[in-house]
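If you are new to this repository, start here. Below is one unmodified record pulled from the training split, so you can see the exact layout before writing a loader.
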Amino acid sequence: MTRVILITIKIAISIPDALFEAAEQLAQQMGLFRSELHATALAAYIEAHRDECITEQLNRLYELEDSSLDDVRQQLQPLSLPQEEW
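And here is the target side for that same chain:
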């Protein structure tokens, strides 16, 4: 049997009163503790922006690399495409 240990950390944040009240109301409607709502919302936000970080890292990596083709490959590239009638 695998046992999972979850470690939580308490934090203090400052948010506008209106946002606090809206979160409090939503947590009650969903039957969640306030901390569960905040953790779920933060996890969703991180997941939604994860791809942006990956794209940014790839862009930084590839801007250092020369992506131009040498003359031979440049001449061969169109030949590798199927011939289509327009």
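Two things worth knowing about this chain: The mean pLDDT is 88. The two ends are 64 Å apart (CA to CA).
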